[in-house]
Amino acid sequence: MKGECLCGEVKFSVKGELPNFYQCHCSLCRKTTGSSANAATFVSEECFEWISGQANIRSFQKPTGYRNDFCAACGSSVPNKLRDTELVWIPAGLLDDETGSCVAVHLHVNSSATWELASCSSVRLGEGPDSLKSLHAALQRIS
Fold first, then answer.
1. Structure pTM?
2. Ranges for the CENP-V/GFA domain (predicted)?
3. List of residues 6+ apart from 93 with CB closer than 8 A
4. Beta pairing, strands 11-14 & 48-52
């Protein structure tokens, strides 16, 4: 399995099968992603290998220990070692699509954003809208 950041500067590979993913809905993960949750998994350090771009990685760490490593060129969150463990945290969105994994656990759902709604009430489009007008029309259908 291979993965890379948005610009392709930071690349890595994972040997073996990936565990299922989790989604964390805490406020820190929401701020890191700009979304409702952070989807990721952990793998053993021995199964993880950098291919390129390590020199492009920057890190931000809060005094609490929360850490986010990211590509200096495109800003994508990238894998990082989990504190003093033998685990590497891997953002799910960086991985090739053929993972065979799925989201198995939702964490910190009590901290979910108030705007996060059940997906059954959402409009789902197979592709992006043709225009802002069509996106606005789709959003109006659920209001």
1. 0.81
2. 1-116
3. 39
4. antiparallel
